[in-house]
Design brief:
The chain has a domain at 80-180: T-fold, CATH 1.10.3980. Helices cover 31% and strands 29% of the residues. The protein has helices spanning 51-72, 80-86, 97-112, 122-127, 142-149, 180-197, 291-304, 306-316, 336-339; strands spanning 3-4, 11-13, 30-37, 40-47, 93-95, 157-162, 165-170, 203-207, 210-214, 225-228, 237-241, 247-252, 257-260, 263-266, 269-270, 275-276, 281-288, 319-326, 329-334, 342-345. The strands form five sheets. The chain has an eight-stranded antiparallel beta sheet with strand order 3-4-8-9-12-17-18-19. Helix 6 (180-197) runs antiparallel to helix 7 (291-304). The radius of gyration is 20 Å and the shape is globular. The protein starts with a strand and ends with a strand.
Length: 347
């Protein structure tokens, strides 16, 4: 079995790539900080700061992201999320305000996508080999899928805000919450807040496939972000956008997969069928006020497939760009709200 793992829907920050713009004057060089978190990479770009400040900032960034990982990880047995998952208590479970906000956003988007965005789908994710469990040696049978599905469902989870304390409560003892679909978006927003706290008002931050920008880059122009062509064989640009102070996130099924029994198994699991999606939609990019919202919506829309996703996008007035595979070629569709951010498209 061949495993291909990459954060689906990588977004390329053009201002961080060589050759995209003429080099800025020496006085306005750009500082780029990078590191690893949540099984992916983080990157922060801002007009130049001193080496000393950059080092101090890098330490603060890594500490903040390490804290986010300790909050949300399903790979760490002692994370806040896994302590909730491992508990069999049906009583309200105290959580941080951050955790409550993340789950609240996920439940809201889940409801608006008719359960397609489902943070309780963890047992199915694990069954198909995309969680901490090992990849299966053979395709799960229907009885295994049904058993895993019986442990899922947004209706089994709620957020309680009581006397300035937040709680999560489940009504299934073995409910398993997986926040990996929104973790990168939350972390990107968290980094953006750190930049503001540090007095930095011009930046582009990214965690995996989620980005947030503010202000202008070192050249005094808008931060430009490229949506990647949905293929695992090249890093080609499909479209370029100016996210203009918003969050952006992309979900796709073309870089996080493995091959089993002669079939490509996508990491995008449909909660209704309990199986990886097989439709023609291969990439969904969402621009929203926060990266957390964008990260939640792109997952739900990706699960729905092209036609159902378009109906939700039009109903909710979302800024969305979708890429579908039609035979050997790609076709694109965007909402009117997304076109306002578009700088160029490469078909």
């Amino acid at each position: 079995m061949t495993l291909h793992f990459w954060r689906a829907g990588i977004l390329l920050a053009l201002t961080l790539l060589t050759g995209c713009d003429p080099a800025p004057p020496a006085a306005e060089q750009q500082s780029v900080l990078e590191g690893k978190t949540m099984g992916t990479f983080w990157r922060v770009s801002t007009p130049a700061i001193t080496a000393e400040r950059a080092q101090a900032l890098r330490v603060k960034i890594q500490a903040r992201l390490d804290g986010d990982d300790q909050l949300l990880s399903t790979w760490k047995s002692d994370s806040a999320l896994m302590r909730f998952n491992d508990s069999t208590s049906l009583e309200p479970w105290p959580v941080s305000e951050a955790m409550a906000d993340i789950v609240t956003t996920a439940l809201r988007v889940g409801a608006k996508t008719e359960g397609a965005m489902d943070i309780t789908v963890g047992p199915l994710v694990n069954l198909w080999g995309f969680g901490p469990d090992k990849q299966p040696v053979k395709t799960p049978d229907q009885s295994q899928i049904d058993t895993a599905k019986a442990r899922t469902g947004l209706q089994h989870l709620r957020v309680i805000n009581q006397a300035q304390q937040q709680f999560l409560q489940k009504d299934l003892a073995d409910l398993y919450v997986d926040l990996s679909t929104v973790g990168e978006g939350y972390a990107a927003d968290h980094l953006a807040r750190l930049m503001e706290q540090e007095g930095i008002s011009r930046y582009l931050v990214s965690v995996g496939g989620a980005l947030v920008s503010r202000g202008m880059n070192a050249q005094g122009t808008a931060w430009r972000v490229a949506i990647q062509k949905p293929t695992d064989s090249e890093n080609a640009v499909q479209a370029i956008v100016d996210i203009n102070g918003h969050g952006i996130s992309t979900s796709g099924n073309y870089r996080n997969y493995y091959e089993l029994d002669g079939k490509r198994i996508s990491h995008v699991i449909d909660p209704q069928t309990g199986r990886p999606v097989e439709h023609k939609l291969v990439s969904v990019t969402v621009i929203a006020p926060t990266a957390l919202e964008a990260d939640a919506w792109d997952t739900g829309l990706m699960v729905l497939g092209k036609e159902k996703a378009q109906a939700v996008v039009q109903r909710e007035g979302l800024a969305v760009y979708m890429i579908s595979r039609e035979g050997d070629r790609f076709t694109t569709w965007m909402s009117p709200q997304f076109s306002a951010f578009l700088l160029s498209e490469k078909n």
